[in-house]
Each structure stands twice: as C-alpha cells, then as structure tokens.
Write a structure and sequence with these properties.
Length: 361
C-alpha cells in the first residue's frame, strides 16, 4: 500500500462524515431563517398599504365608481346610434360626441332615451346586469324613481370597483369647466368635468395627487380645484355665488340628461350648480319644486329657482331656471338652444310660471 494511500483514504472518510453533518445543519439553519422571515413579513404592511396616505383605512369593503370622465345613463340597454359610440367607449370622448350632434334634431333624439349622467369618481349602486350593460343608480342624485339614486343603463366598462378606504381623505372638486388629470405632471391622462370629485393623497404648492376610481394615483393642477375635508365642509353659498357659478356656462349648448360641463339639461344645470356649493337638491325639476322654501315672485333673491308648468302653470312641471337678479333668469332652455340669461317675463315662461323655491339661505 502506498504510504499516503491509507492516509488519503482516512481523510476522505472523515470529510464525508463532516460534510453530511454540515448538510443537515445548513438545512436546519435555512428552515429557521425562512420561519423568521415569514414572521417578519406578516408584520410589514403590503406595499400598497405602506405607501398609502395616513387618511387611508385598510380592509374596507369595495364600492362601485364611474371610471370614465362622463357616463351617460340610458333608459334601456342595447344598440344606439353610430355617433353615440363616443359616449359608450372607454375612454369616452365627450367633445367628439357633442360635436357630432350639431343640429337640434340630433340632440332631440336623446329625449326620453337618456336619463342622466354620472361624473368620473361618482359612486353608484349596481341594480341589474344585462349582457355588456349595467343598470346603476347614481347615489347622490335624489329621485323618487329609486331609493339608491337616479337609475339608468351604462356599459359595464364605465364602472369599476375600488377599496373604499379613502373616504376619510380630503376631496378635490373641479372648479373649472374642465380639468386635465396627469400621469406625472407632464403627460396628460384624461380630461374631467366641472364638479368631478376625487380623494386627495398629497398636496404640493402647484399640484395635488389624487386617487382614481381604478386605484391609480394621478395629478391635478391645484388651480383647477377646491379642496375640502368633506362635502359637508363646503361653505354655505350666497345667492351671488350660485349665480356666478351658473354664468360660467353661458353659451353652452343644451344636452338632454346632461349634468356635465359638456352639456346640461335644465334641472341637471340647477342640480349641478347647487351640488358644487354643497347643497343637495333632487335631480329633476318636478321633484326640485317639492323641496326648499316657497317664495313669491316679488320676493326673489339671486340663486332662487323658478319653475314652469304646462296649462298656464297649473299642469306638469317641465322646466326650471335660476333667478339671476334684476328681473332676469339663467337657464338651459331646450335642444338646439344654449344656456342664456333672459327676462323672467319672457313668454312662454311668464305665462307658465308655477312657483319659486329657495334652498341656499
């Protein structure tokens, strides 16, 4: 036997024993490390929670929100006109849709076919499903038609679910006719309407960061919004506040069912102006006249609402306007016309006057 052969064999045997022990020890250490790491991971919040603002409340139920700039609610689901594709897609293109209806007849076609509109970020209740359509109720649009809010049908793609944990965050309300949302302060994401409301997660000198209905973070110019701790914290408006807000939309073409800066109907106009100032009134003129405080025609204040009815003011209420002061009113008249200021003695309104209501003071 070679002198170092035995020694070499002995060393090899010993190494195999130690190697086996080391292998077992390494596995035990690895298992212990994994157990400790798993414990620590339980203590560390998820990335989305760790980066969430302090106003965020985790583990809240999901709610349904409008996920397009403006969603038009239809009386029945199903096929519409070719030009209506701009209002049915995601994203919608409200400018193209309204521009594709230049005549009074193309806009009159919507009468009785559309119900109302809901803005980006508005909460809705899902009532029914039919194929690619959802029947929803807009929660902050009061109506006797449904206990949850104003009902109608929208494409499924217009609605998304979001964790409701941001409800304690401050709200940004768009105060301009329209405002742009940005991805990173430079790249435009989408245009949204006056009165759209989003939860604020961060404020800077010239910008605010908001959470979208799809739980993404985007940016808005601070000059485009007003920020409140909650809708209940909006200051009570004066009559001139209401009238000045209404005047922003002079010259805007009438749109049946409209509640956005791309077009209003008569009651959508008054409902939206009051909502912007923190006052909730019903969606339709026929129900608005039943609320508030009755005032006589010779005691009108700016901001009061005037109502008009068929049969010389004694029949069904069909129109509403806002008193603008000095014997004038501002209103959205009808398809083919634009928001205007006229005398309250203009016919047929003088003859059809059915009463006035005060909501602001």
């Amino acid at each position: 036997m070679k002198p170092d052969g035995g020694l070499g064999a002995g060393r090899s045997s010993s190494n195999r024993k130690y190697s086996k022990r080391g292998y077992i020890m390494n596995w035990k250490m690895l298992a212990a490390f994994v157990a400790i790491l798993s414990f620590l991971l339980v203590l560390v919040p998820k990335q989305s929670e760790a980066s969430a603002p302090t106003c965020y409340s985790p583990n809240q139920p999901k709610r349904n929100y409008i996920n397009v700039s403006v969603s038009t609610l239809w009386k029945v689901p199903g096929t519409k006109r070719t030009i209506d594709k701009y209002s049915l897609s995601n994203p919608v293109d409200m400018r193209k849709w309204t521009a594709s209806m230049p005549s009074a007849n193309t806009r009159k076609w919507l009468t009785g076919k559309t119900e109302t509109q809901a803005l980006y970020g508005q909460e809705v209740q899902i009532l029914k499903t039919s194929g690619r359509w959802l029947q929803i109720a807009v929660k902050d649009q009061y109506t006797a038609k449904n206990k949850y809010g104003y009902p109608g049908w929208v494409p499924k793609s217009h609605v998304t679910k979001q964790q409701a944990g941001y409800n304690n965050c401050r709200k940004a309300i768009v105060k301009t006719k329209t405002a742009d949302l940005y991805d990173d302060k430079n790249k435009k994401y989408m245009e949204i309407s006056f009165n759209a409301r989003l939860f604020v997660t961060k404020t800077e000198k010239d910008w605010i960061k908001v959470i979208t209905p799809s739980s993404q973070t985007k940016w808005l110019k601070r000059s485009d919004v007003k920020i409140y701790a909650a809708s209940t914290k909006i200051p009570k408006p004066s009559g001139s506040n209401l009238v000045n807000t209404a005047k922003m939309f002079l010259g805007l073409p009438y749109l049946w069912a409209g509640t956005s800066a791309y077009g209003f109907d008569c009651s959508g106009f008054t409902h939206s102006v009051y909502k912007y100032h923190g006052i909730t009134i019903p969606r339709d003129a026929s129900e608005q006249i039943k609320k508030g405080k009755s005032v006589s025609k010779n005691q009108l204040h700016p901001g009061d609402l005037l109502f008009f009815a068929y049969n010389n003011g004694k029949g069904r209420v069909h129109h509403v306007s806002m008193y603008a002061g000095n014997g004038k009113m501002i209103h959205a008249p009808r398809a083919g016309k634009k928001i205007e200021i006229i005398s309250i003695n203009t016919e047929p309104y003088k003859q059809e006057f059915a009463g006035a209501r005060r909501f602001a003071y």
